[in-house]
Amino acid sequence: MTIEKDVVVIGAGVTGLIAANRLVAEGHTVAVLEARDRVGGRTWTNDIEGVTLEIGGQWVSPDQTALLETLVELGLETYDRYREGSSVYIDQHGSRTEYTGDIFPLPEATATEIERLVAVVDEYVAKVDPDRPWETPDAAALDELSFREWLRRLSDDRVATENVELFIAGAMLTKPAHTFSALQALLMAASAGSFSNLVDADFILDKRVVGGMQQVSERLAAKLGDDVHLNAPVRTLRWDDEGVVAIADGGVEVRARQALVAVPPPLYSRISYEPPLPRRQHQLHQHLSMGFVIKVHAVYDRPFWRGAGLSGTAFSPYELVHEAYDNSMHGSEQGTLVGFVSDQHADDVFALSAEDRKARVLDSLAHYYGDEARRPVVYYESDWGTEEWTRGAYAASFDLGGLVRYGADQRAAVGPLRFASSDLAGHGYQHVDGAVRIGREVAAEIVADLPQPAVR
């Protein structure tokens, strides 16, 4: 089947679908080719053993104005994450403390030092333009130094630095803090408005979408109708100054003036480019890699922690599950806890059998919530590392020195080829909001380059 369109979009996640809808609104024709049997990319709302779970991205925060606008446009509603009651913190000695407020219940000197570090990081973040972090003062030096080492140079209090690490390494980039730079960490914070926003769970994890976040992609795809093709992984992109030919499985061939590759950077190499991409892109793409986190869902007959006066929010840099939240679905009588196991901890538990891994994870949840946490009626692990068309979570980030060396070129067009995803966003980096923003931006760039459409 040969299709002729103005633009071929590779990937039916939020970025690709936002861009495709914008292009259609400007009078251009599109074909969206998606490798999976569903739309949504790293957003996925699915029924597991009769329970609806958010397998992928789900949160909405107040600063995510592009996503909030899109939810209104699509007729989707939000609801607040449950947060009434006390949070739980476990320290380096395994001591469990219930607390309220934003400050971890640590010795006064360490708690004060954490507050000081957050303020210092925010001073640096204020100098970072998330769209051009490589232009930050002292960018090269900040990009050569790991986030861990940078924090340790700022403070001798190891408990303080370990707790500050948690909010970037475990909770966001999902890589060990010695493997990415201070500049990459500052970009992560700047993309959310400030580091203070990232350490405030009530801000960054504010709301959820009634019915699930995947509906954003599903409703965007519905507007495009038959122009969205599933089970069509693109294997070859032939390109020259005149346009592109995208060849996908199932005998699908799309001829277009331009192509938008709207997939995570580690998947770029799954496509054969004829002719090959320039050397700069080959090198650049090798320095962007996915993090790794397991999103664990434990569903119970009821949200038992609420009866104990707990909000469901829990933190510890010293636990296997480094953070957890009440993730009960809107209108459900059942209670769901969602916990996260990231970076090397995720590597370690995947060396275990599924049964032993489950036991280890539930033990960690029990340290926070008590023995009842060991007895869920449904247990499920979102393992995006095994997803052929994702290969990790939440997003891609640069290795040491990569952001300054390659950052300015990561969105550079190559002839008629463009690259965009939440991994490459500035504001909203690695969030659904970033996917919306960069989808809008790249659509505007394509429209500016295409001839004006004829009246149809």
From TrEMBL:
Q: Matching Pfam families, A to Z?
A: Amino_oxidase
- InterPro entries recorded: Amino_oxidase, FAD/NAD-bd_sf, Flavin_amine_oxidase, Flavin_MAO
Residues recorded as binding FAD, renumbered to this chain, are 15, 34-35, 234
Q: Which UniProt keywords apply?
A: Oxidoreductase
The UniProt GO MF terms for this protein read:
putrescine oxidase activity
Residue stretches making up the Amine oxidase domain: 15-446
Q: What class of enzyme is it?
A: oxidoreductase
- Magnesium: is it a keyword of this entry? no
Q: What is its EC number?
A: 1.4.3.10
User: So which cofactors does this thing need?
Assistant: FAD
In terms of SUPFAM superfamilies, this protein maps to: FAD-linked reductases, C-terminal domain, FAD/NAD(P)-binding domain
Q: Which residues are involved in binding substrate?
A: 340
Q: State if Methyltransferase is listed as a keyword.
A: no
Similarity annotation? Belongs to the flavin monoamine oxidase family.
PANTHER family membership: AMINE OXIDASE, AMINE OXIDASE [FLAVIN-CONTAINING] B
- Name the record gives this protein: Putrescine oxidase
Upper taxonomic lineage = Bacteria, Bacillati, Actinomycetota, Actinomycetes, Micrococcales
